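Re: How this chain folds, sequence and tokenised backbone to follow
Notation: Tokens come from a learned vocabulary of local backbone shapes, not from coordinates.
Start of record: The labelled sequence and token lines come straight after this line.
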Amino acid sequence: MPLIVIPDDAPPVLSRSDAIGQLRDCEHRVYPTLPANSRELVARIADADAVINIRASTRFTADVLAECPQLRLISIWGTGTDHVDLDAAKARGIAVTSTPAVSAVAVAEHTLSLIFALAKQTVNVDRAVKGGEWPRAMVQQLHGKTLGVIGTGAIGREVARLGGGIGMNVIAWSFNQRGDYVWVTLDDLFRRADVVSVHVRQSPETLRMIRAEHFAMMKPGALFINTARGRIVVEQDLVDALQRQRIAGAGLDVFETEPLPSDSPLRLLPNVVLTPHAAGITRESTEAGLAMAIGNVLAFRAGAPVHVVN
């Protein structure tokens, strides 16, 4: 009987969800730990025809795929595909699907929360009050300021909508300029925006695309937000800009190395708000995304594949 394997449900989300009920009539196996290495991943999925991938830390390299001759589908919970060798999968007849837009609202709301936390210095003021102080911080007002959105996919569009909703002036840059936005060049966006927010997908085209020269263009009082992927930004260049107070602050949900290393200088900077790659994790988006990931498997098996990315 065809087998579905979930090799990386750690910490457990699928096994505790309502969505897993969709698999009750399917042979499936769930691992509540991360595979320690590629050999262990192969051991878990070698006899599967379909894999539901939960964590982006699980890497489906060409070597891994070569050891899985029965595999026909990798269904990713999420939109990032940088951990899957898409070309190798295609060459072996392995379809890869994702869950597009399912977390767009959650990530956009999280993005806005980082903007507010930085602009209002919420974290630092909270610590000061709890420490017995009564600070009078001169915080930023967002109404009337310029929000620069890099990438206008589902998440970028929602961030633009929310920014406009609080009275910000939205400008945008994207590889594919569709929609009614004030389009600017990438350099102009960095020069003009009071808040720069990144929402492009990680790809060879976007890897390390934001670097020192872009931070040098920003206003001294500007804020930088990244809820996309850490490797889109040259992290050390961002650290340098923050340490020298070249920019006012950064709100980051993603990093070059995850989990964030204990010796990362980002941990020590007072002008940074950090979250653990959790922007898209709400109860609502999690259930919807897991249901879609399972639905992608069932649709593929029924001969009507959807949300195929390769």
